[in-house]
Amino acid sequence: MAPQHEDRETGTTPGTGSTEDQGGPIRLLAIRDTPLSVDEVFAAVGDDAAGGTTLFVGTVRDHDGASAAGVTGLTYSAHPGALAELRRVAEKVAADFPVRALAAVHRVGELRVGDLAVVVAVSCPHRGEAFAASRRLIDDLKGEVPIWKHQTFTDGTDEWVGA
Question: What pTM value is reported for the model?
Answer without folding.
Answer: 0.86
